[in-house]
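Much of our argument rests on the idea that a fold can be written as discrete symbols. In the encoding step, the backbone of a single protein was reduced to a row of integers, each denoting a local shape. This step matters because it turns folding into a mapping between discrete strings. For completeness, the protein is quoted in full, as a sequence line and a line of structure tokens:
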Amino acid sequence: MTVQDWFEKRKEAQIQRRALEARVEIEANPDLWTKCVHCDAQLLKKDIEENNRVCPVCDYHFRVNARTRINQLFDEGSFEELFTEIKPTDPLDFVDTESYKDRLAAAQAKNNMDDAVVTGIATIEGHKVATAVMDFDFMGGSMGSVVGEKVTRIMEKAIELKLPVLAITSSGGARMQESALSLMQMAKTSCACARLDEAGLLYINLITDPTFGGVTASFGTLGDIIIAEQGARVGFAGRRVIEQTIRQKLPADFQTAEYLMKYGQVDVVSSRKDLRDTLANILSMHE
């Protein structure tokens, strides 16, 4: 065995020992670790949180809930929540594998929210903005009557106060438990967007992963400026449904923010760490 072979063998043994030690530590403290769904790297949860929930190895952007998004983007303490009195009901007494009332109660308890959107007024580096922030954790961010009503009301409040609007979307589409009442929200929110346009106010869409269905087909893509977070998947129907319909394989990057940027469907693709500065620059240019 040559000296070089000996060093290589020793290096390999050290790597194997470190891997074993890391595996032992992960198994002993499972609550401290998580695996990146993109690169399979074992990561300390603390490291991900400190990196704005972005994988430090491959730059994969984990989903974040509405409250986290608010803390990341807006000036500290500036967010004033509005329309908290609007709460969901079950007008159709809908039941599938369980009742809609039970699903709502479970989602509300889990997420400490009344429905899938939070609306209010806040500032980004001092620039005041009306905002609607969706949360995918609440029944897949589905748009029912409450989501449509709160989005419409925050746009009406923006017209009253002459403020720009920022809609941050993350949704699987319409809420099936509300049937046609859910689909009506597409028309209602689109009309609110039209009134914003008539008032000459800036409307910004920030599309995050995932944004699909009725939200994409309504207020989610009607902005004057459309920003997509890096790696976000955006579309109407899902990839599998489209492939089954056209009987063809789609490109690997189909429906990603980068793919949409290439074909002119979004204006900006931004990493999470740059989003706040990007939004502040846009707002400052339109004051």
Remarks:
- The two ends are 72 Å apart (CA to CA).
- The beta strands are 33-35, 42-44, 80-82, 117-124, 127-134, 165-171, 203-211, 225-229, 268-270.
- The chain has one domain: 63-285.
